[in-house]
Amino acid sequence: MVGGNLVDVGPFIKLQRTKRQMTQEELSEGIVSLSYLSKIENKKTKASPEIIQLLCNRLGIEFAEETNSHIEEKCQQWYEMLFDHCDKQEMTDRYEELQVIMNQSINESFIMFEIHQIRYYSVLRDFNKALAKINELHELVDSFNHKHEYYWYKFKGGYYSLQDKHAKAMKLFKQAQEKIPLANLNEVEIADLKYGLAVTHSQLWQQLECLDYTQEAMEVFQREYNFDRCGQCHILFGISYQRFKKYEKAIKNFQLAKHLGELCDNQDVISLAHQNLGYLYSTTGNSEEAIKNYLLAIEDKDVDTDNLLSTYTCLIEEYYHVKQYEKVEQNLREAKELLSKVTYSDLYKLYDYNIKVYTHLINEEFSKFKVLLTDEFIPYLKQAGEHSDLVFFAKLLANHLEEWGKYKESVQYYKLASLSYEEFVNM
């Protein structure tokens, strides 16, 4: 590689230097001038093999003269594992094995391997490390080729999507989409991006766009007999149809998702199908079926923590609605225990507030309930743009204020619920 394409070695040298917290002055001293090293790192010049060798020696690495197909193959196998349904321990074992190789030599796979670490840490929900990797790679962006740029935008979009920053995620996914014609990608990879776009459109309540991208993605997944991904697509179809109030179509898609999840033993898909069925039945006033499906959704405690906590909060709300207060207490305890086991971040703040609200209600701590909502939770929901939850909790507070005879305050929060609903339906 180095003999044939020396200009491409620069970005690798730059990244290895920054990973070792070495300055350009420290690396270049006695080998080349500072300005010449900068040109090498930014692909502005073609250095001699002797200079590259000296720089690598100082970094404590070797360079490979030719592309190592064995390393490329091992990297590709690892890239194909970076999905939520894959075994996390095997994913980590493969990563650690590759990391040893990548830290010792220059090879064609290095930058792509570094970019894929954003995805790796996102799948593991280690968002601090994902963000650190994004920040670390920022300086190399000018050195990326079209394929690097595609994955850079795509994986950053995935990171922000998991952080519930969906407008930012959408912008990045669209930037990735623009790179497709020049990035030499296979149709499965393009379908995965389209699935990401579909999820983001769904989060932004853009149902027609969601349906279009979901359909395009699923056509590819069906040809590949990828039942995991087809199941995920059916969940998106179900959510969209539910929002259009086409409930029979929604139920059919959720049931298809559950069936496909069972075929490939994907508990996350099965759980998510039951959670969405529960929510559908709740919104249509069928509490019995809602509770039944929510309970099935939390049966397997090893599924995605975010989905589990989301289901617990729905279940608590439903039990409170039907006045089964002992069940509310029981599920509050389980939800608190689950929340105590996760690394706390803004991602879980919504669930924490939900749990506190119903804890105060069930303990008849009405003053604490009111203060929590007025001073903390409702301002948080406003700032986060969580319109659906804002409607629900503003109305919940208004109902209780009305019961306590605080009619003036009650009207204030009914009005907030109404305005939030208008913003919600006009999204």
From TrEMBL:
Q: Which residues form the HTH cro/C1-type domain?
A: 13-66
- CDD domains according to UniProt: HTH_XRE (cd00093)
GO molecular function terms here?
DNA binding
SUPFAM superfamilies in alphabetical order? lambda repressor-like DNA-binding domains, TPR-like
The protein here is known as: Transcriptional regulator
